[in-house]
Write a structure and sequence with these properties.
Layout (H helix, E strand, L loop, with lengths): L3 E2 L6 E9 L8 E8 L7 E10 L2 H4 L14 E2 L3 E9 L3 H5 L4 E5 L11 E5 H4 E3 L14 H21 L8 E4 L5 H13 L2 E6 L2 H9 L4 E4 L5 H12 L3 E4 L4 H9 L5 E4 L13 H5 L4 E4 L2 H6 L3 H17 L11 E5 L3 H12 L5 E5 L5
Parallel strand pairs: 10-11, 10-13, 11-12, 13-14, 14-15, 16-17
Antiparallel strand pairs: 1-6, 2-3, 2-5, 4-6, 4-8, 4-17, 6-7, 7-9
Helix pairs in contact: 4-5, 4-11
């Protein structure tokens, strides 16, 4: 396979594919199929996958039913970690053979829930530090880079809104704050001295965040939480909010923000459109409602700024991948054969708070 390889590569592999999406997630159909191991093209590498996470951005797509469009089975999984075992050619791709890496899936028809996958080396491979275990880097990209992107965005917007005149540090409000991403955000904000107001729904979620060192927590199940949030935002001079929920959550955040405040929607956990937004906030109070998408933030406006952004983010993320570091994740492990069973249990019963499902792919002897 390719122009260089580090060990013997089998001719076939197993992978999980989405065979039928469903708006009722537990009725979606995921199946295991055996296919040929893909061959990397020039500039690509073949990765033996060690681990891959099941992110909300992954299973959100399992709901996407396109009426009148009978889809073929679709490989799934957006990121993972593994070992580069072959190159399709090219100086950089060749230099990676044998490397321990995190990766994002960026080749059409490929997914990380596979024993092997091809990846564009320049845009999708992230060599790991020696002190980070390969399996621990399964979630190295989507959540940590999103968190870093939040803080980069907050710094820029806070400076722009205040014209650097106010003697205040940047800050943000975050919903669904006890998620794995939310816990990373608590740790990095503390490290970077950025104010963070966390919104959760349950007392046990409050405890999770307090144990991590969170200072400002709002429980939205407690009566009067909206006023408490508004007062806290004013006291801390916060102008930005990041909403993972949408629905009426977006309107409540917009109402709580000060004039010129910005609410970024980056998820739709409510399964509803953004609602409850007062037009006067947009017209007279100069508040803004925007979306945040990781790929858009990374790409920015030009290639130079994109490379600088990736370099800075990678250095920060990799420094935190060590156990209990800011970008490390807590995993609940499965293998390819019992992945769906464990996912349905977490989705219906045991929940995702404090952990993320990780698919492990043991090396075949």
């Amino acid at each position: 396979v390719g122009t260089g390889s580090s060990n013997e590569i089998p001719s076939t592999m197993r992978r999980i594919v989405l065979s039928k999406p469903n708006t009722d997630l537990v009725k979606a159909s995921l199946t295991i199929e055996e296919v040929s191991v893909p061959t990397p093209k020039s500039g690509e590498v073949l990765v033996r996958v060690v681990a891959a996470p099941v992110n909300p951005s992954d299973y959100g797509e399992w709901r996407n039913v396109v009426e009148g469009n009978e889809m073929n089975s679709k490989p799934i999984g957006k990121e993972g970690s593994g070992i580069v075992v072959a190159s399709g050619g090219g100086f950089y791709a060749n230099s990676l053979v044998g490397s321990r890496v995190g990766f994002i899936t960026n080749v059409k028809g490929q997914g990380s829930y596979s024993e092997y996958t091809t990846v564009n080396a320049l845009e999708g491979i992230f060599p790991l530090p020696e002190d980070v275990k390969v399996e621990d880097a399964a979630s190295h990209f989507v959540n940590p880079y999103t968190v870093y992107g939040f803080l980069d965005t907050v710094r820029i917007r806070h400076s722009s809104i205040t014209n650097n005149k106010e003697n205040s540090k940047p800050g943000l409000v975050h919903t669904a704050a006890a998620s794995q991403l939310g816990q990373m955000l608590v740790k990095l904000c503390k490290q970077e001295d950025i104010t963070l107001i966390n919104i959760v729904r349950r007392e046990e979620q409050e405890k999770i965040l307090r144990d991590l060192g969170a200072e400002f927590i709002i429980n939205s199940s407690v009566e009067g939480w909206e006023k408490k949030l508004k007062d806290m935002i004013k006291e801390q001079n916060v102008y930005c909010a990041f909403d993972a929920i949408a629905g009426e959550s977006t309107g409540k955040l917009m109402d709580a923000l000060p004039n010129k405040g910005v609410c970024f929607v980056y998820g739709g956990l409510s399964k509803e459109g953004c609602s409850g937004i007062n037009p006067l906030d947009l017209i007279y109070r100069k508040k803004k409602l925007e979306g945040f998408y990781l790929e858009t933030w990374i790409r920015g406006t030009d290639m130079v700024s994109m490379l600088m952004r990736i370099r800075a983010a990678t250095a920060c993320v990799h420094s935190g991948l060590v156990p209990n570091g800011w970008s490390s994740s807590q995993f609940y492990d499965c293998e390819i054969d019992n992945m769906w069973e464990k996912f349905v249990d977490m989705y219906n019963e045991s929940g995702f708070t404090g952990r993320k499902l990780r698919i492990l792919f043991p090396e075949k002897k």
